[in-house]
Specification:
The chain is α/β, with parallel strands linked by helices. 67% of the residues lie in helices and 9% in strands.
Length: 288
């Protein structure tokens, strides 16, 4: 299974999407949370169907296999611990998605045994029942088929995953709708914390994981430029047309500058990847 996982980029992409859906559900409430929860279940369904199609994968270990794959892709525990409902949402989402696939297969098996009394009749109607089974899980199969056209050969997938710009582009394309929806929900919910407070909290998790024990300064000016956060020689500036930050000026003074939007800060794994990328560079601003 590990070999298949590394050779099929769809599995890695779906695991990242499931993790982000779980975080999103933890942040939302009511109908919005339920909508994102159902989207996450659909991704679990198509991941389970794909794993189920692997001949070498024992059916009796299917549920445990899906859970182990997702556990291996989760962020650090100290990040998860800041979301008390994370494990509960994860457990419910995995159980619901996997049960949909297992229940559909079980119902079809029971239907076959009741309707056909002989092996000969079963053979005659096999194709019809298979088509009916496909109709029952059509929404999940549609999601799977939509990704088939985007499948890459293992070598091409490896090159794509190694390119930070391709990773960023894929994240943007997959999450664009979610970011916009999250932003609208944040503006409408009166009891939700301000976007600035959420961004600050998420960024703090990332910075503490990269610079453990180091102090963080917030909302300051460096060389008369607006800086959202500063830790060591790293400056985090917001991409805000109304509050422009001259990254080139800061870099000429020896700072490492990371520029991103509020929406970017809602996704810790994306921000951490961007910051680590710029820390490997010298004097070049990274604009998200």
């Amino acid at each position: 299974m590990e070999t298949y996982f590394h050779n099929d980029p769809r599995i890695h992409e779906w695991l990242e999407q499931i993790t982000e859906k779980i975080f999103t559900v933890c942040l939302l409430k009511g109908v919005d949370a339920e909508t994102e929860f159902n989207k996450g279940c659909q991704i679990v369904v198509k991941l389970t169907i794909l794993l189920q199609s692997i001949a070498i994968f024992p059916p009796e270990y299917l549920e445990e296999g899906v859970k182990q794959l997702i556990e291996q892709q989760l962020p650090a525990k100290k990040i998860i611990n800041n979301f008390p409902s994370f494990n509960d949402v994860k457990g419910r989402m995995l159980a619901e998605g996997i049960s949909q696939v297992i229940k559909t297969a079980r119902n079809q098996s029971t239907s076959l045994n009741q309707e056909f009394e002989s092996a000969e009749e079963i053979a005659i109607h096999k194709d019809e029942d298979f088509e009916e089974c496909l109709e029952n899980i059509a929404p999940a199969l549609v999601l799977v088929n939509e990704t088939v056209e985007d499948y890459q050969e293992p070598q091409e997938a490896l090159e794509s995953l190694q390119d930070p710009m391709n990773l960023q582009q894929r994240d943007d394309e997959n999450d664009q709708e979610l970011y916009l929806e999250s932003r609208r929900n944040g503006e409408k919910a009166a009891d939700r914390r301000s976007q600035s407070d959420e961004a600050k909290e998420r960024l703090e998790y990332v910075l503490k994981s990269i610079y453990p024990g180091k102090p963080i300064q917030w909302n300051m000016k460096v060389a008369n430029q607006p800086v959202f956060a500063n830790i060591e020689d790293l400056l985090i500036c917001l991409d805000d047309p109304n509050n422009f930050c001259n990254a080139k000026l800061l870099n000429r003074q020896g700072w490492k500058t990371f520029i991103c939007s509020f929406e970017d800060l809602l996704y810790p794994r994306r921000v951490e990847r961007g910051i680590r990328q710029i820390l490997r560079q010298k004097g070049k601003p990274l604009v998200k």
